[in-house]
Amino acid sequence: MVSPVTDTIYNSDQKEYIEGLNRGTFDLQWLKDERPTFGVHAKPKNPERGLTLQDINNAFAGEPEDAPTTRVMAPRGSIVDDDAPDMGYEYNEKYLVWSDNVVALYEEATARQWSATRDIPWDKLKKLPEDLERAQCQIATFLSEVEMIASDFPAKWLWQMNQHYHEVKMFLCTQAMDEARHLEVFRKRALANGGGLMRCLTGTEQFLKTILHAPTYVQGSFLMHVLGEGLVLDIFRGGEFLAQNETEKEIYRLCMQDEARHVSYGTMHLKYYLENCPDPEKALTDMHNLADIAEMGIPGFLTNPFIIEPLAVLMGGGVKHI
Asked: Which of 56, 251, 290, 303 is deepest in the core (most CB within 10 A)?
């Protein structure tokens, strides 16, 4: 028996439905509706890997539309009520968010998650000479500072992307988790071996602000995924080479695989955008102009003693060797 109907909770249709339930009458419209996906049997292409997003897409509703007609949170391929509210999404065209590798990148991201608590051999972190410890901690502080921009930036735009492109949104969620873990692991490194957190610079903060406040997702994605994370990926490669112990090597190795995914999405997203936007020639010119301006700031961003000198100390094996 359903609780008695009150005038303050239910609308007229709900009252009628509840009264019907109390009489033993059911609607069952969900059994009568058209079922476009009923009878679909998605099969894993590789049983050892499991059922992937691509397996599902191959079975049904694979390629998202270039411009869906709805702006709702209902999953792609489902039946949507005609009076469903408009969610107000701003990014409703595929070319604005899509990359052809995003489904594969999502699967890789979920398969290769790691723990900054358990998967780093913290017991192999040994005492270092003060100059080497300070150098490692300065770089760890810098990376703790910059990595979370790649969580904050997608979070700013995710809710503005049409749910039709759920693969992009799901991938960007994995990126946000990756970068939270990077902040965690570099903060831990800075505080785990007697060194501590070091200096953060105005120029770094200004660069991060430029990314976060980019006027469009496309521009911000280029600045962050391609330019910013491309630079950090190089730092990770160098960091593994300059690591003083297995703890640091593993930190950089694991962060590197995450960062490579983000750069890969950004590169292929830029490619898809330039190839599929309504005015490719103008888009290419605009992107070149943005790149010219951004690239002019990179030398100044990097040419400061709080980045150059710690790297030099690590390369040389100490202050006296640089």
From this structure: 251
233-237: long-range pairs with CB below 8 Å, 24+: 233/259, 233/260, 233/263, 235/139, 235/143
Res. 220 pLDDT band, cuts 50 70 90: very high
DSSP 235-289: HHHHHHHH-SSHHHHHHHHHHHHHHHHHHHHHHHHHHHHHHHSS-HHHHHHHHHH
Query: How long, in residues, is the chain?
Result: 322
Burial 280-301 (b: 16+ CB within 10 A, else e): eeebeeebeebeeebeeeeeeb
- As a whole number, the mean pLDDT across the chain is 92
**3-state SS class at 87:** coil
Contact 83, 153 (CB under 8 A): no
Q: How far apart are CA 104 and CA 57, in angstroms?
A: 12
State residue 79's pLDDT score. Answer: 84
The domains found in the chain, sorted by start residue, are 105-321 (1.10.620.20)
> How far apart are the C-alpha atoms of 86 and 72, rounded to whole Å?
6
Q: How far apart are the first and last CA of the chain?
A: 82
Both structure tokens of 204: 């770094």
**What is the rounded distance in angstroms from the CA atom of residue 139 to the CA atom of residue 208?**
16
Q: For the chain, how big is the Rg over CA atoms in Å?
A: 25
**Secondary structure class of 32 (helix, strand, coil):** helix
